[in-house]
Amino acid sequence: xxxxAIVIGIIFLYQITYQTANPIYPNHFRSGKLFQDxxxxxxxxxxxxxxxxxxxxxxxxxxxxxxxxTSEESDMDxxxxxxGVQDAFSVCPDGWRLPTEKEVEFLIKADxxxxxxxxxxxxxKLCGRIDNGQLSKIELQNTFWIDTKLIDGNITHWHTxxxxxxxHNHNVTNAKRKFPVRxxxxxxxxxx
Length: 192
What we know:
This protein is of the alpha+beta class and about 190 residues long. The protein has one domain. It has helices at about 1-20, 75-80, 85-90, 100-110, 120, and strands spanning about 30-35, 45-50, 50-55, 65-70, 80, 130, 135, 140-145, 155-160, 165-170, 185. The strands form four sheets. A four-stranded antiparallel β-sheet has the order 1-2-3-11, with no helix packed on it. The chain has a three-stranded antiparallel β-sheet with strand order 8-9-10. It has a two-stranded antiparallel sheet with strand order 4-5. The chain is globular, with a radius of gyration of 19 Å. It starts with a helix and ends in a 6-residue tail after the last strand.
């Protein structure tokens, strides 16, 4: 009897701990660590999902052609910086990169199966996008660049509409679209 009570107690405690961390992926957690970008001093919280660290914030590194949501500092903290397609591929800090289509598909599938909640896990805000210099789709969606090829102005990118997430391919150069960036890195390369 005592052995059974001990085993049940251990299993019960394990399940509570496991569910607190994440109901499906034991390697998904808020790291509590910050990555500091040496280029400008901005710090970013990052989380682990499977074998990657993901920024839990939009990148805020400014380039000569990047745009902000508004001129308010608090809005930049909330939504980050918006980048054109040319900037997107080189804007992540050293050791970090854009997520691949396969990595985003993994997140979308996990979200559909209710293994994670992309909005909560990555702390996504629906900041819209910039089309021809004008902010659009505010509070309706967020769109992110991913690591894929630009072909004749068309490129695959990641849309999130709150509870719906999809990869989408169309022309982004005609409308001079700008989207925020979420950077990732393999766990083995990040020592912070």
